[in-house]
Amino acid sequence: MLLLSWEYPPVIEGGLARHVRKLAEALVRQGMRVDVLTRGVGAAPKGEDPHDGEFGGVNVHRVREPGWPRDLDRFVAWVERMNDDMLAAGEALAQESGYDLIHGHDWLVAPASLALAERLGLPYVTTIHATEHGRHQGWVQDQPQAHIHSVERWMARSADGVIVCSYYMRGHVADIFDIDERRIAVIPNGVDPNDLRPLEDLEALRREFAAPHEKLVLLVGRLVYEKGFQLALDALPGVIERVENVRFLVAGSGTHEGELKAQAEQLGLSRHGMFLGWIGDDVLHSLYRIADLCVVPSIYEPFGLVALEAMASGCPCIVADTGGLREVVPSGERVGLRFNGGDAEHLGVMIERLLIDVDLRDRLVMEASEHVLRFDWDDIAQRTRGIYSQLGKLARREEGARRG
User: Fold this and answer.
1) What does each C-alpha distance from 32 to 91, 204, 387 come to in angstroms?
2) Residues 198 and 345 grouped into a single domain
């Protein structure tokens, strides 16, 4: 089978790259031959890229592309050119390797994925990791959001199979694209605790950000509006005043970074914490282990991988009661706490509660360590193979009917 993704390690823009890699490697462990067609960066010709080849049993093929423009209007044109290049590369690969199915990830590779499937006469599966409608709270009437939304709608309606990461996303996708929920399979994201490798000297890292008597609150993710970090910043002054000796870290980068820093300055938070910008995985996994709690305050969240990684690292979580986070952190205060989505005051109450109640933190960590085992990549791969098998049987029946 052939997987298409606009990012694949070491080219990482977000969680999609890690998802595709872990899925591909798990499929290989289960006996499948998996090729990945993805993007390289720069101008090195094919065959000279050290990241082109077999990794973890997966055959990775990269199409060299220039760095993508941050201006969204220019980004859409850049995506179209990338899809043209991927389509040409995919057709060349198909002449060398016989594929049974095309699996594309998100709208960014939808044109190439669908065109390949049609030209090769193969089933096309798409995984919808998020939607433009959700990222912009339904405001998709203007360009370029309207264009992206229309591509996603066309992708969802054209695909032979649709996969989403949560039951929330199944309802969301069915509603905004007007398709039957029965066409949409729910297969969650996964986490591999063995991948969450911290730095060796955690005590030294902790001393960089907080004194022994201080509590450390962690915020992780892309700094964009829908991740809701502005809510957490609004909640922190009251928490600091009531609890005292509280510090915070914001790890990540994004289009909302400047506004968040200005907000922190206006709220008088600058002396109580810092923005780290983009960080590598080793530092991120270490931050989970040195923080007293992790806050995931998203306004829109298809799944909630940060919460899952934090729990797998032994860091208690507070998440917004919204989207896929409800499925990662179920109600009942068993594995984590939830606050009313969009309510900074309620978030402050929950942060204060978790910082003060050591027994509660310990109980949540213990229960969460068992809960995260449900999100196993081998199980996710097996369920994904089930989708492939169903579509393969359907395609063979349709081919037989045409011949008959």
Assistant:
1) 20, 44, 14
2) yes
pLDDT value of residue 114? 97
- Beta-bridged to residue 37, according to DSSP, are 4, 61
Residue written as token pair 């929950």? 350
In the three-class reduction of DSSP (H, G, I as helix; E, B as strand; rest coil), residue 242 is classed as: helix
User: What would the two tokens of residue 153 be?
Assistant: 């709608």
By residue range, what is the domain housing residue 257?
Answer: 194-374
Strand pairing class (215-220; 124-127): unpaired
72 Cα distance to chain centroid:
20
Quote the pTM value. 0.90
Give the distance from CA 359 to its chain's centroid.
Answer: 31
The pLDDT tens digits of the residues spanning 206-231 come to 999 999 999 999 999 989 999 999 99
Cis peptide before 111 (omega within 30 of 0): no
Q: Which of 213, 223, 358 is nearest to 232 (CA)?
A: 223
DSSP code at position 57 = T
Q: Does residue 343 sit in the same domain as residue 204?
A: yes
Give helix 305-312 / helix 358-371 axis angle, nearest 10°: 100
- Structurally, the chain folds into a number of domains equal to 2
Phi/psi of residue 69, nearest 5 degrees:
-75, 140
- Check whether residue 131 and residue 164 sit in a common domain: yes
